[in-house]
Predict the 3D structure of the following.
Amino acid sequence: MNGKKRTLALVILSAIAGLVYLTPFLRFSFYDQMMEALQITDVQMGTIGSVYGLFYVIVFVPSGMLAERFSTKKLLVITNLGMCLTTIWYSFYPGYTALLVIHALYGIFSVGTFWSPYLKAVRNLASEEKQGTIFGLSEGLRGIAQTIVSFICLGAMGLFASVTLGFRAALWINAAAFALLALAVIFLIPDFDSENKKAAASEEEAATAEKAARTEKKEGNYSILQFLKSPSIWICIFVIMCGYTLWSTVNNYIGTYCTRVLGIDASLSSTLSIIRSYIIVFVAGASGGVIIDKFRTKGQAMMTAFLLTGISVIGILLTNNLVFVCVIVTVVLSYMVNVIKSTYWSIMGDAGIPLAATGMATGVISLIGLTPDIFVPPIISRFISYGEGIGNIETGFNFMLIWMVVWALLGVTAGFILKRKKANS
């Protein structure tokens, strides 16, 4: 692809990546409004999040297989149409059991037909030396898309006196966005796989590539086991699990922490959540990717990022009686966890994973490394319920903050192991 096609592909890919994770995670920005509109409890909210996490973890490896065997463009169209139709169903508030099914479908469409094809496409858009920058830029573009749609949703919710009607309007906006993105893929995105085949310099190179593809497909039956035996894969899993646990905790619960502990109005808290979850994504992606690439190794960069994350969490614990200062610290924390999340896929080269193995490797890594969406919501929701039960909700949230400090320390350790792996390779 030429430069213009690459840029257009990156923008559309990033916009889809933003929206497929905005809709299932509307609780990040509208936690309290979502509870009221759906008439559910903290524990039920946690269960919905856990079901989504369970299903999208289940389909990570199939996602890698799909990325290697089917057209990226077709998978992108299926993703957007599936998310659109599921969101329309969601908007009718079909009941708690149906909400669990809906979030299971979100897991399938946002990962099974999208995740590995997205990572494979983005990794191919830049050289190994610029992986931090390209993934950071993609994360930043995701943040822009999420910010625009989130503020449109917030504005639409403000037009209705009823939270029930306002939240439904937000869902319709998300469904419309998926329909538009499906059309953008159909008419504006080239077929990545066909473009790559055309890029072969000669018939001989094309024949060699085809032979390699046939060999890879034959070896697919045992490649998963080979990956699971690889130290490179487990290093990536360790780093990514630590980063994603922190990111998931911050984006799920810092908004409601501001409402319940700091006493901030729910609407203002939603605005701050949009800033933390989406605007900060752009800032962190655009700046974090460039910063990470300036470190001598990705391991050293990750050690620094996790250390600063832990310090930010401790800052929240020490300043929660100073509301304005504490809110500023939550923004800093959001920046740090988004720097980690926007760049942790760039560590694959330093960990020793070859470019040709990206599709299946990302599926295997994600299968384990992104499991926090299964266990974070039920664990943190029970911390909060415990605090409510003893009449001191701040205690429940303090458990959450201590939990984050522990994961930050584990992340520093993971970064150190990655650094040693690079040094010994």
About this structure: The chain is about 85% helix and 0% strand. The first helix runs from residue 3 to 22.
